[in-house]
């Protein structure tokens, strides 16, 4: 009996010690996991703080603006759309002494000529790689809208000496400028949003005056004046190449540039399809094509007014072609005279959008080549084909990359100002402006 009792208590003690060991192991694992999670959270917190500090120091101006910053985590879960409904307030970036904002319709011819000259002298001037728009190239983008477009000019006082009288003359010299023109935006078949915005363009500072906070002052003052002059539009859209300054983009994509010199004229399209250039007599077919397919194919559509599209077509700033069969539009291509030359006497023709409702991708890509060549034959100065890999242009880019190597590949992005929303796949983004 004593032996049985002894064995019982001995086994019970062993079992008790076993469970003690298990308990200690569990406690140790719990503390290890606890401290691991704690240190992981601390590490993530330090990374976030460092990222915020970097953005606020490196991009001080943009860190103070109503945009979707990469550290605004609540916007990832609950994007608010419009960030600030109230009119903007004056701050350290607003400069009403040097900057004036006027409607495009109030631009006198002399001022528009000065603006064009300023852009030609300071916007993308790098050896033979130059941006050389004419007054007509620029003016067409601000015509045919239902809302006002705006120009902002930054002036500095300079003293000129009259060569004959030696008298000092005070002159206002343009050292910065930016513009905005109205666009219409539809998100997710208008279910999430349908609103007007301003597209910002020609943001430029004199080459000798850069890194002096002139661009931030232009943006802030322009936005302030624009909101006061047109209270119905509160959102702006920027396009940027390269760095996106700590802002979550609307979409990000690549732009490809191909040298057309080695290319041969493509064979004609098959007889059952026709390539048609869009003009005032047939633009209604394009509009019907838009209505039937844009919101079905794309998650976000950004469009200028039809009157502006017609003005751009009429002035040969853009070229629009459709492939049709039996009276039905299958696809559309949108080309822009970029006014950019890589070498003297040679210009870049940019395909900035396309809509493909054709089941045959080979036909769609071939249609692009035929349309491109038609424009090239009419205007032989176009020696470089530029393609923005957005909307349905990925089909064209992939086709060209099979046999051609791009000479330039640049990243680009669109981003909202005073509006926060998720980033879109560039294949689901249509921008025509």
Automatic annotation (TrEMBL):
Pfam families: NMT. Keywords: Acyltransferase, Membrane, Transferase, Transmembrane, Transmembrane helix. Signal peptide: none annotated. The keyword DNA damage does not apply. The chain crosses the membrane at residues 21-51. GO terms for molecular function: glycylpeptide N-tetradecanoyltransferase activity. The keyword Transmembrane applies. It is an enzyme of class 2 (transferase). InterPro entries: Acyl_CoA_acyltransferase, NMT_N. Its EC number is 2.3.1.97. Belongs to the NMT family. Residues 109-235 form the Glycylpeptide N-tetradecanoyltransferase N-terminal domain. This is glycylpeptide N-tetradecanoyltransferase.
């Amino acid at each position: 009996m004593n032996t049985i009792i002894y064995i019982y208590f001995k086994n019970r003690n062993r079992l008790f010690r076993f469970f003690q060991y298990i308990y200690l192991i569990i406690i140790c694992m719990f503390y290890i996991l606890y401290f691991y999670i704690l240190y992981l959270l601390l590490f993530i917190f330090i990374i976030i703080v460092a990222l915020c500090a970097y953005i606020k120091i490196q991009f001080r101006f943009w860190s103070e603006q109503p945009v979707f910053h990469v550290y605004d985590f609540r916007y990832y879960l609950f994007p608010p759309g419009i960030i600030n409904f109230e009119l903007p307030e004056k701050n350290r970036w607003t400069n009403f002494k040097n900057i004036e904002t006027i409607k495009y319709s109030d631009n006198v011819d002399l001022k528009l000529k000065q603006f064009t000259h300023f852009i030609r002298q300071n916007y993308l001037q790098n050896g033979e790689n130059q941006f050389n728009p004419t007054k007509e190239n620029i003016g067409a983008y601000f015509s045919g809208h239902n809302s006002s477009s705006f120009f902002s000019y930054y002036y500095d006082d300079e003293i000129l000496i009259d060569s004959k009288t030696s008298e000092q003359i005070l002159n206002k010299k343009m050292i910065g400028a930016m513009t905005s023109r109205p666009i219409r935006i539809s998100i997710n078949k208008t279910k999430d949003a349908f609103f007007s915005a301003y597209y910002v363009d020609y943001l430029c500072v004199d080459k000798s005056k850069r890194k002096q906070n002139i661009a931030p002052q232009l943006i802030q003052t322009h936005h302030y004046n624009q909101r006061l002059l047109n209270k119905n539009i509160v959102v702006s859209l920027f396009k940027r190449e390269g760095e996106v300054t700590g802002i979550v983009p609307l979409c990000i994509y690549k732009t490809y540039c191909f040298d057309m010199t080695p290319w041969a004229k493509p064979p004609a399209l098959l007889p059952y399809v026709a390539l048609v250039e869009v003009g005032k007599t047939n633009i209604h077919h394009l509009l019907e094509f838009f209505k039937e397919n844009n919101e079905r194919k794309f998650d976000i559509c950004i469009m200028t007014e039809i009157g502006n599209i017609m003005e751009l077509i009429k002035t040969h700033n853009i070229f629009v072609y459709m492939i049709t069969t039996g009276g039905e539009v299958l696809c559309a291509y949108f080309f822009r005279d970029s006014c950019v030359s890589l070498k003297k006497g040679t210009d870049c023709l940019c395909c900035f959008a396309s809509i493909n409702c054709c089941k045959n991708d080979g036909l769609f890509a071939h249609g692009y080549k035929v349309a491109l060549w038609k424009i090239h034959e009419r205007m032989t100065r176009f020696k470089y084909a530029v393609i923005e890999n957005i909307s349905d242009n990925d089909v064209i880019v992939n086709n060209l990359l099979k046999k051609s190597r791009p000479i330039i590949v640049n990243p680009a992005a669109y981003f909202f100002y005073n509006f926060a929303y998720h980033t879109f796949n560039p294949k689901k983004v249509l921008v025509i402006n």
